[in-house]
Amino acid sequence: MTTEHSLRQRIRDCYEQPFFDLITQAHQLHVAHHPKNEVQLATLSNIKSGLCPEDCSYCPQSARYNTGIDTWQLPSEDEIRQQVQEAKANGSSRFCMGAAWRTPPKKDFSKVLDLVRVVVNEGMEACVTLGMIDAEQAHGLKEAGLTAYNHNIDTAPSHYKDVITTRTIDDRLETLNHVGSAGLQICCGGILGLGETLEQRMEFIETLCQMEHPPASVPINCLVPVEGTPLADTKPVDPFELVRTIATVRLFLPKARVRLSAGRLSLSDEAQALCFYAGANSMFSGEKLLTTANNELSDDMVLIDKLNLSIQQPTCPLPREISLERLSEPVAGSVVAV
Questions:
Q1: pLDDT band at 321 (very low <50, low <70, confident <90, very high)
Q2: Using CA atoms, how far apart are residues 278 and 82, in angstroms rounded to an integer?
Q3: What is the pLDDT of residues 43-87, one digit of tens each?
Q4: Alpha-carbon gap, residue 56 to 100, rounded angstroms
Q5: Is residue 20, in this structure, part of any structural domain at all?
């Protein structure tokens, strides 16, 4: 590998090297930047379900597809408080709230701010994903105590129009710039298995690395095909491709938390173990991820015990460096710094 190689080529060279070389390098870089053998549990609550006007071809919450999901509006503060307390008792240190909006309506946004305050007052990290927001809304969320805003880019810019036509990748990046400029942590990743090529998967990772405000956490999802959506018949992602992607993200974003997200239900314990070894250090806990099934908490606890992992405590703050330093600069001597 030479210095004149483009970032995309360096990412691909890294991804395509022998499997054990890749995951060994990723693991070494991981333990240099994160507590060894520790995993963060996060809980995701669907606070507004369905009837979204977007046409994301993977999403059962789009009003354009007949997927048979239940729909509902925002919960009360007491309902969220109960969910937060249960999540905290089960080991989660981050509580994420997702709403199926293109952009949050003004009448609902103030209610979301109140829900964020409930989470913060219970001593947990608060994260929301509400669709596209402007600078004023981003600052409002920051003032309410929000830790992070999730807004996935989903896939490579060159593949974006084949997955979503109701918005552009630039729309997505504009929201992320508002979030970063407001001083919020960015939670941004994507979904594997949307029909992307290997080159587009490398482009997806490159885009994360080149963001103006690099993500503090990167959710890596595998598509969960849902009947009624255009991608319902898509074949599953090869678990080794998932591990390679996680390891490559870890090498190019060494200080970011990498979240093992949707699609985990289809993975064996052995595949999940490889994901954690390769650099994943967070996972969503709970029986549902918005509308799709997730692993049972009891199964997760058994796996955590088998792997001798410890759970990040709810009162443990994120390292200060995550919000203050560039997250996409590999340490000297790593494979991607050559």
A1: very low
A2: 35
A3: 999 998 888 989 999 999 898 898 887 888 899 999 999 999 999
A4: 11
A5: no
Out of 172, 201, 250, 259, the active site residue is 259
∠ CA(151), CA(220), CA(72), 5° rounding?
A: 50
Residue 15 within any structural domain of the chain: no
Query: In this structure, what DSSP letter does residue 291 have?
Result: T
56 catalytic? Reply is: yes
Domain total of the chain = 1
The active-site residue out of 10, 14, 59, 94 is 59
Q: Would residue 172 show up in a list of annotated catalytic residues for this protein? A: no
Looking at 10, 12, 94, 127, which residue is catalytic? Answer: 127
* Residue 275 bears catalytic tag: no
The structure's pTM equals 0.88
In the set 12, 94, 96, 188, the catalytic residue is 96
Instruction: Check which CATH number belongs to the domain holding 157 and give it.
Output: 3.20.20.70
Question: What is the C-alpha separation between 119 and 114, in angstroms, rounded?
Answer: 9
Q: Count Cβ atoms within 10 A of the Cβ of residue 7 and give its class: 0-12 exposed, 13-18 middle, 19 or more buried.
A: middle
Segments forming the whole domain that contains residue 168 = 26-337
Cα–Cα separations (whole angstroms), residue 78 to 86, 272, 289: 12, 35, 21
* Alpha helical stretches, state H, the chain: 7-16, 19-33, 77-89, 106-121, 135-143, 160-163, 169-181, 198-209, 239-252, 269-278, 297-306, 320-324
Query: Known catalytic residue: 222?
Result: no
Q: How far apart are CA 216 and CA 311, in angstroms?
A: 19
* Helix, strand or coil, per DSSP, at residue 218: strand
In this predicted structure, the answer to whether residue 129 has a pLDDT above a threshold of 90 is yes
Q: Is 187 a catalytic residue?
A: yes
Give me the catalytic one of 187, 209, 222, 275: 187
